[in-house]
Design brief:
- It is a single chain.
- 30% of the residues are buried.
- A hairpin with a 2-residue loop joins strand 2 and strand 3.
- The protein is of the alpha+beta class and 132 residues long.
- It has helices spanning 22-36, 41-58, 89-95, 105-109, and strands at residues 12-17, 66-74, 77-85, 98-99, 103-104, 112-118, 121-129.
- The chain has four helices and seven strands, in the order E-H-H-E-E-H-E-E-H-E-E.
- The chain has a single domain, classed as Histidine kinase-like ATPase, C-terminal domain (Heat Shock Protein 90, 2-Layer Sandwich).
- The strands form two sheets. It has a five-stranded antiparallel β-sheet. The chain has a two-stranded antiparallel ribbon with strand order 4-5.
């Protein structure tokens, strides 16, 4: 098989002004990186649900009015890092993922969820791995 086809791409950083383009742009970037990481379609669908949930609320919580996300993939794993967010906002963003009848989709679909405090604010890190 072609070595390039299985190479892990460099992480992609996308910064989008808060507003209606956040979800569509992030969905496309996540889709490309997930394909390179050979994430199964069911996990890709779940990653897109996470993006929709995060994009709906993230714009109000950033430090600069831009939703900045780094997306990395490799070894059937997808990692999203979102930030900088205002102090205390990462927890608020995770809690905003609660949907009636489904519970919290961010917590439920993530294999790992972490909040890092940086000089510029908070960073939300979400990781999804292929199951099985």
């Amino acid at each position: 098989m072609n070595e390039l086809a299985h190479s892990t791409p460099e992480p992609s950083c996308v910064s989008v002004a808060a507003g209606p383009l956040v979800a569509p742009v992030l969905r496309r970037v996540v889709g490309m990186i997930a394909a390179h990481a050979e994430l199964p379609v069911d996990r890709l669908d779940e990653a897109l649900l996470l993006i929709d949930s995060i994009a709906e609320h993230a714009g109000d919580l950033t430090t600069d009015g831009r939703v900045t996300t780094t997306v990395a993939g490799g070894d059937r794993t997808l990692t999203l890092e979102l930030g900088p967010l205002r102090a205390g906002s990462a927890t608020e963003l995770v809690q905003s993922g609660a949907l009636p009848g489904l519970g919290n989709v961010i917590e439920r679909l993530s294999d790992e969820l972490a909040i890092d405090v940086t000089d510029g604010g908070e960073l939300l890190r979400v990781q999804l791995r292929a199951r099985g």
